[in-house]
Design goal:
There is one protein chain. This protein has one domain (about 1-115). It has 5 helices and no strands. It has helices at about 1-25, 30-55, 55-80, 85-110, 115-120. Helix 1 (about 1-25) runs antiparallel to helix 4 and helix 2 (about 30-55) runs parallel beside helix 4 (about 85-110). The model has no long low-confidence stretch (mean pLDDT about 90).
Length: about 120
């Protein structure tokens, strides 16, 4: 369970970076990229923080799968919203999205199932 919580805290950090990235990397003029980063970043911080603080396997697993979906959105958002001309926003979202998909996916996959939780066979 310690590994799962550590992975969730790393997703919290990725979400926090996503919130401040437009200001640090200078793409605040791209309204779509700016608001996408802020909204998705806040969502990642809240959901991953909740997963990191939760002790219920089903909650942890569900929240991490939602974060995987948010990570996939980050990867495809520049193309769907149309801010591919802002290289900093494009590459930041792709890289953060991949990081979130890997970390949250890993946490979701190794999270104990409800059956393991009931039987007391929780992984470390």
């Amino acid at each position: 369970m310690k590994t799962i919580k550590s992975l969730s805290w790393l997703v919290v950090l990725a979400g926090a970076w996503e919130v401040i990235a437009p200001f640090v990397l200078g793409y605040t003029i791209a309204a779509g990229a700016l608001w996408d980063a802020i909204i998705l970043g806040i969502g990642l911080v809240i959901l991953a923080g909740w997963a990191a603080l939760s002790n219920e396997a089903s909650t942890i697993r569900s929240l991490n799968w939602i974060n995987v979906i948010l990570g996939v959105w980050l990867i495809i958002a520049p193309f769907l919203i149309g801010y591919t001309s802002f290289a900093a926003a494009l590459w930041n979202d792709i890289i953060v999205g991949i990081v979130v998909v890997v970390l949250a996916g890993w946490a979701a996959i190794v999270a104990p199932s409800a059956r393991d939780e009931v039987s007391g066979h929780l992984p470390g």
